Amino acid sequence: xxxxxxxxxxxxxxxxxxxxxxxxxxxxxxxxxxxxxxxxxxxxxxxxxxxxxxxxxxxxxxxxxxxxxxxxxxxxxxxxxxxxxxxxxxxxxxxxxxxxxxxxxxxxxxxxxxxxxxxxxxxxxxxxxxxxxxxxxxxxxxxxxxxxxxxxxxxxxxxxxxxxxxxxxxxxxxxxxxxxxxxxxxxxxxxxxxxxxxxxxxxxxxxxxxxxxxxxxxxxxxxxxxxxxxxxxxxxxxxxxxxxxxxxxxxxxxxxxxxxxxxxxxxxxxxxxxxxxxxxxxxxxxxxxxxxxxxxxxxxxxxxxxxxxxxxxxxxxxxxxxxxxxxxxxxxxxxxxxxxxxxxxxxxxxxxxxxxxxxxxxxxxxxxxxxxxxxxxxxx
Length: 380
Ligand SMILES: [Zn+2]
Ligand SMILES: [Zn+2]
Ligand SMILES: [Zn+2]
Prior knowledge:
Layout: H1 8-16, H2 35-41, E1 55-56, E2 63-64, E3 67-68, E4 70-72, H3 80-85, H4 99-107, E5 114-116, E6 122-129, E7 134-142, H5 147-153, H6 163-171, H7 175-181, H8 205-215, E8 234-238, E9 251-255, H9 256-260, H10 272-284, H11 293-299, H12 305-313, E10 324-327, E11 330-333, E12 336-338, E13 343-346, H13 352-357, E14 361-364, H14 365-370, H15 372-379
Helix pairs in contact: 11-12
The chain binds zinc ion (ZN) (3 copies).
One zinc ion binds next to strand 8.
């Protein structure tokens, strides 16, 4: 259910009273109630084998009813004891539409997969002990990510790295971090099971954060963007992660995008449209110095990192961020574009046709990676 409530009058009263406007967030508390989210997070069976047609993959990463999910096969067969000792021996977790999944679709072996959004990496497994033919059930194993999946997405540059660097990305792969990377594709992110409940902010937190934002003139301390016109995109961050430590030295006023990119912020969910707004303002306010791909990666939506690393290694001309066009009374913000070549990359493809009609060549980030040879011909 979507509620549309106009708080204009309330804000007006707040102003009349001379009080400070404080942020509040609707909806967060209600997320947990959704039975699908709860089942996905806790790795429960959803009551049936998931049909292949119900798993969406048009954006490259997998989703089920609008939620980012993973697929894996719990049945480890006679390998189960090995898998419990060392998860690397187990069947892999799929996070993207990779060549293995395509093959499974083609051979009709897809229904053996279980869908889950449990980002702990410890997933229910079962099998048969081949020594005594006893079935082994009710166990969890630390399973590893599918290498074809991270190649497809060029996650952290996996596809273009070699040797020890590749191994590092694979071994240290963290599902929660991965979900955050692609959060802008989804309406809600799962919380890991057993995560801290409500963070312990002090009762005066609203006043403290409102005062700090005002003192900073509503500018991000990191990238310098002025969010006076979009105050809800300005956050106050606790450097040490302790929500009750409100010492000045522990607090930083950051835009939502810079905040999301701080360490240990795997569960901070920022909408793609908010990143676009911040980049549009950074551009208007000349807060960009994107002359290298590394700088560009620092400002772009994290879901585009794989593509940007590929562009960098292929020495493509630098892309622009924060450009919006207006056609037929509709404003379209490009996640990336090469204006002189009229090539754009969109995360939200809703306006693809409109933009194409006006002479742009449009790719989704996944299409650009999949059809990279084509893509780079347009960009060069
Ligand atoms: Zn895979
Ligand atoms: Zn910032
Ligand atoms: Zn923070």
